[in-house]
């Protein structure tokens, strides 16, 4: 695995087009190892068609995002849950 990644804060801008809150403050649970932590702690790989966010514990893919000129595709199948803080 190449260690050329950014932290989950790299998702803040792209995901702000979809969500009205800062997703990097939400907690996610990895479907692979069960690790729970803020989206900001994910390892984001930007050298692909889109963004790939991996768990820092097991390196499993937690989130994928690809943007086209007319739509955004968000794949969260590597995440069991997303806990969103309210107010």
From TrEMBL:
InterPro entries (UniProt xref): DUF6510 (IPR045423)
Record protein name field: DUF6510 family protein
Organism: Actinoallomurus vinaceus
Top-level taxonomy: Bacteria, Bacillati, Actinomycetota, Actinomycetes, Streptosporangiales
């Amino acid at each position: 695995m190449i260690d050329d990644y950014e932290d989950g804060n790299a998702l803040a801008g792209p995901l702000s087009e979809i969500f009205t809150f800062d997703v990097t403050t939400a907690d996610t649970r990895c479907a692979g190892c069960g690790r729970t932590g803020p989206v900001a702690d994910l390892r984001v790989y930007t050298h692909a068609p889109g963004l790939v966010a991996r768990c820092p514990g097991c390196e499993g893919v937690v989130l994928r995002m690809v943007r086209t000129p007319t739509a955004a595709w968000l794949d969260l199948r590597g995440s069991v849950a997303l806990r969103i803080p309210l107010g």
